[in-house]
Amino acid sequence: MSQEVSSRSTWSNRWAFILVTIGSAVGLGNIWKFSYIAGASEGSVGVFVVVYLACVALIGLPLLMAEILIGRRGRGNPVAAMLNTAEESGNSSWWALLGWAGIFGALMILSFYSVVSGWMVDYFWQYLAKGVQVNTPEETKAAFDAMMADPWRLSFWHTIFMILTVGVVARGVVSGIEIANKIMIPMLFLILILLTLWGAAAGDMPTALRFMFNLKVEAIKAGVVIDGMGHAFFSLSLGMGAIMAYGSYLDKDTNIGNTCLWIAIVGALIGLLCGAAIFSLTFGYGLTPAAGPGLILQTLPLAFSDMPGGRIFAVFFFLLVIFAAWTSSISLLEPFVSWLTERFGIRRSFAAWGTALPVWLLGVAVCLSFNEWARFKILGRILFEMLDHLATRFMMPLSGLAIAIYVGWRLGKVIVLDEIRLKQRMFRLWFNVVRFIVPVGITMIFLYELVLRDWFK
Ligand code: TRP
Fold first, then answer.
1. CA–CA separation, 428 vs 416, rounded Å?
2. Which of 35, 37, 49, 151 stands the most exposed, by the fewest C-beta atoms within 10 Å?
3. pTM over 0.70
4. Which protein residues are within 6 Å of ligand 1, measured from CB?
């Protein structure tokens, strides 16, 4: 049962595709998650960073290509793309489950992603409207806790962020998603370069770089290695249909290999630059980098209060985070919306707002899980942690594994070769990595996350 998809949009050109995919990849993961995971792996941050980079190259890049391959070959939303390619290659239509997992998983991520993005909009607004002056770590913590204790405030900014996201997706692939990325990503670059230079001048860049690249091999802990792998996964938006959906709008002539190389390099580079800027300020102002998930909201305000022009710096910093989060959240909503429009012929704007409603509601529940509903725990976790856990620890690695098996072992070399037009030796290298290294690597992450970390904690 193949799903016929008539007149689909196509990105304006190859660069537009690179831009939107970088937009999806670079997000809260690079700024919020990267800095706190790196900060938390004290003593072996260099190992985490090197493993992360190695995994971007060894697992991330090959999977990125595989996901785009399926999307482009299947010419449809993730469910249709899986059905179409499975039919073409004589595989069971059960493979469509992978598409389903992707479109629902992406919505799940979106529900809490939007809440965390809301924190960033809140801080942006505070700095823009009145400035924030804090003098002690206790004060920044109290300010952060006050926000987390207020469900109305959390829900308000979450709502604003959802509206921003839906507003773009409702407008369409080219006139919404592509245009938004074409405006935001270059600005993101500009702000990032500005902030990195400023951060280097105001902070302590040498210490930051030494901190990030201090390769103490004797300090390798299993956790650090696996964290690096997991992060490579999340930060490239893999396994949730987002990249597959974007790939389905890619024209036949674009070389997937070259394009993905660009995406992986730029994505990792932006992550490193953000880290350098954040740690430079952290060290420059004598703060400690191991603050946990609140790092950028509980540590940086102190540096902002202390540095000359700190308020302007803060406004630009949070603007950068918002752009990064916004271009990512768009890619989390698109897979489901494209399924609705293509499967039922619903108008895009209607589909986008309709999808957003339940996601928004789930997000409101996430806001409540920090305060009013904090006592309701599922397996010892509040809803926020549960959703994050389920999506990033279960669904993403499992989907990634399935994609590697599908492309490496089921799709058949003829189709794969036809889409990935690499030179013979490069092709063989990539294909073998997808068939062997990626599944083994992911199985390792998965076993570790599921079994080792929880059982032997
Ligand atoms: N990569 C984004 C980040 O680093 C998050 C993201 C966007 C994502 N789309 C995704 C994660 C799809 C997993 C799957 O913030």
1. 11
2. 151
3. yes
4. 24-25, 27-30, 106, 109, 234-235, 237, 240, 242, 328, 331-332, 396
